[in-house]
Write a structure and sequence with these properties.
Elements (H helix, E strand, L loop, with lengths): L1 H20 L6 H22 L6 H19 L18 H33 L4 H24 L6 H4 L1 H10 L3 H29 L1
Amino acid sequence: MKKDILRVHLVVLSLLLVIWLVPTNYNFLIWNLFLALVPFDLALIIRYLSGKKGQLLLKLGLTVVWLAFFPNAMYMVTDFSHLSSIGTGLMTETQFFNYAILAVGVLMGLLFGLSSAHIIGRVYGGVLSSTWTVVFYIVLSFVSAYGIYLGRFLRINSWELISAPHKVLTLFLTSLSSHSLVFVISFGSLQFALLVLYHMMRRINTD
């Protein structure tokens, strides 16, 4: 298990080095992937703490932090909007390379998010009924979708929940509109579909 976790981080580090060293349109992926990795690592720590006695408060506190950072992973699906910077025709070598870099970055971020949500769901739900899984994923999907909206359009960062809570609350209240509603419904539904599909595929692999 520890070796697999190390290999995952080495793969991410390798991609970050490629993005940093080779000219590409998508250097922002370095920061976005780092933020996407945070909820995955937090989920692993929370799972580890769940087997330790006397760590309930720490586990709950880290879960709150995990929830604050979780949208950063699913946020990466919106990074496909940056394809406009290279065009979508896929006719040149530069387009091939940049598209591959963007796609692998986005998919990595999504996998970190899906995996971390699966881990948290198992930590708190164990092997309970599918009802728990559905409710957990529905709530998480739409809370995360609003987090993505705040990050994409209002440029709010996760740490501002602590450093500038009044700003976050003010922007949250002023962002309630038909624009944000359609976004949350669309991207909440997208996340829910991905989470449920990932959950079912994990069950197939373990049965």
